[in-house]
Amino acid sequence: MKFCPYALRARLVLNAKGIPHDTVFIRLYENKPEWYLEINPNGKVPAILDNGKIVVESLDICNYLEEKYPENPLYPTDAAQKQRDQEILNNLGKFNILAFREFVISTEEKSDDEWIQFFNQKFEPIESELNSRGSVFIGGSKPGIVDYMIWPFMPNYWNISRKLNHELPFQENDIPLFRKWLHAMNEYPTCVELFNPPEKLWKLQQLMSQNAPLDYDNL
Length: 219
Ligand SMILES: N[C@@H](CCC(=O)N[C@@H](CS)C(=O)NCC(=O)O)C(=O)O
What we know:
The protein is mainly alpha-helical. Helix content is about 50%, strand content about 5%. The protein folds into two domains: about 5-70, Glutaredoxin (3-Layer(aba) Sandwich), CATH 3.40.30; about 80-200, Glutathione S-transferase Yfyf (Class Pi), Chain A, domain 2. Strands 1-2 form a two-stranded antiparallel ribbon. A hairpin with a 2-residue loop joins strand 1 and strand 2 (about 55). It starts with a helix and ends in a 10-residue tail after the last helix. Glutathione binds near residues 1 and 44.
């Protein structure tokens, strides 16, 4: 399901590491194919099939790929740094990666200032991580594993204006490193190739909220 952020994690890692692969998209909520349940009995995407080995769960898939295909490593070589990345990934809840989704589906009435406050607060942990690393990406001069695990949840940033009918007036000191990171990720070649157009994501969310039929290929 090409709009699934968890599936996108695996696709980004395959792409970043240059691993040749085929991608099979499935219908996820209506007419889920029977054959898929034989690959992943809980029916969730993503799953990978690598020479007869099946791996499910996005983070496990990415770690599996990193171990099996060491070229273009996504974890730092420094052991302490690697451990820090692993700790972050084990506690990703602290990074509030679902904040944009929360915003998009929210029915709360909030002023622009209140929404900006909301994002400043939600993304402060990513902001301070970027600050302490002193680099554009959490991975350094190019995206690493943490960047690729969080970016797939971010395209709704570009749906802020679809929901509010205007841009949010972020100021220079509102999560500046986070916003710089977001733009840099969006322009990074691995991501450009797999970026889901926000307008399609928006349409999909509208259809899902109305329980309307989903035709992923013609949004
Ligand atoms: N923890 C899983 C979550 C995957 C997940 O929730 N995928 C959703 C799509 S975004 C799914 O397959 N939903 C279909 C279902 O639950 O039947 C992972 O990280 O891979």
